[in-house]
Design brief:
Blueprint lengths: L13 H30 L25 H7 L14 H32 L7 H14 L3 H22 L11 H32 L6 H4 L8 H11 L4 H22 L5 H9 L1 H14 L12 H8 L12
Helix pairs in contact: 3-4, 3-8, 3-9, 3-11, 4-6, 5-6, 5-8, 8-9, 9-10, 9-11
GO molecular function: nickel cation binding
Pfam families: UreF
Family: Belongs to the UreF family.
Length: about 325
């Protein structure tokens, strides 16, 4: 077998080799910094009010969604708990098959937006309602599945309501954010919430008028702001005191918790196995790997990397019998 080296650039001089060495050393230094950052986060965890962000009682409505798990089980009948001997156990199937696929898909489509919003909070005057709207619009384009998009919007609007009713004005700002910067970020969230409400009102008005009048191009246009979960989570988590890497970890951990809860209610395993799964090292390793993978991903590059997840999520509404909303 012949390997083509047509794309490999051969150094033409000693200066070219020196440049290549310098570039590799720079990449190595950046990798060491990222590794040290994750070690520091693990050895010195923060325990401020943001711990409430990992609480399963946080009313985001996650219990209503299975993120494609119920559809996956319905399309993989031999993986159900009633499967004959010799087949993989439901626990094995969940941990080794569905969970990695779902986590990879979720990280690829959403994590860049969490990180982008979290980083904006620490930059004075950068987090504005216009910036949130731009991230929200990009997130809408990064989720091709209508069902997944609807779930993201439902949870995002729930988080926005939690911010307005519970967190706004009562949280301590992180040390990395100045008082002025925190106020600007809070104003941006309030402005974004107002824009979302106006968008919802306009959508309802257009729906009511469509029965009596022909639909125009303006009425067919999407709402100005959808309020997807990922960018709002990044902004709120950062204002609550979480560093970007911590916000990303908590975001993915929340997804894993929701999946484990869905697996329990779907009868794949019991509550004790659920806690064993969450406490195991595999979940931590998977989440850490996803955060490292998406750490430098731009929002323009975010998108679905596991197409089959969109099939499972999208076909959920076609199931004859189901216990989850989506």
């Amino acid at each position: 077998m012949t390997v083509s080296n047509s794309t490999t650039r051969i150094p033409q001089s000693e200066a070219d080799i020196d440049d290549e060495i310098a570039d590799l050393e720079h990449k190595l230094a950046e990798a060491k910094i990222r590794r040290q950052r994750f070690k520091s986060s693990a050895s010195q965890p923060r325990i401020p009010s943001p711990s409430s962000k990992t609480d399963s009682a946080l009313p985001l409505g996650s219990f209503a969604f299975s993120s494609g798990l119920e559809s996956y089980l319905s399309h993989q009948k031999h993986y159900l708990p009633s499967s004959p001997q010799g087949q993989p156990s439901p626990v094995t199937v969940f941990i080794s098959s569905f969970l990695p696929l779902s986590l990879s898909s979720y990280a690829a489509t959403s994590l860049p937006f969490v990180l982008a919003a979290a980083r904006l909070v620490s930059q004075p005057s950068q987090l504005t309602s216009a910036a949130l709207t731009a991230l929200d619009d990009a997130q809408d384009a990064a989720i091709p599945c209508v069902v997944a998009r609807r779930a993201s919007i439902a949870q995002g609007r729930a988080l926005l309501g939690i911010w307005e009713r519970s967190f706004d004005g009562v949280v301590r700002h992180p040390a990395a954010v100045t008082e002025e910067g925190a106020k600007q970020a809070e104003e941006a969230l309030r402005g974004f919430a107002t824009l979302v409400r106006k968008s919802s009102s306009s959508t309802l008005a257009s729906s009511s008028a469509s029965a009596a009048a022909p639909t125009t191009m303006d009425e067919d246009a999407p709402p100005a702001s959808s309020a997807h979960l990922a960018p709002l989570f990044g902004a709120v988590a950062s204002l609550l005191g979480l560093a970007p890497e911590e916000a990303a970890y908590v975001f993915l951990l929340g997804h894993v918790k929701a999946l484990v809860s869905a697996a329990v209610r779907a009868g794949m395993f019991g509550p004790y196995q659920a806690q064993r799964t969450l406490a195991g090292g595999e979940v931590h390793e998977m989440i850490t790997a996803m955060v490292e993978r998406e750490w430098e991903t731009e929002v323009e590059d975010a998108g679905q990397t596991v197409p089959v997840m969109d099939l499972w999520v999208g076909r959920h509404e076609l199931l004859y019998s189901r216990i989850f909303n989506s």
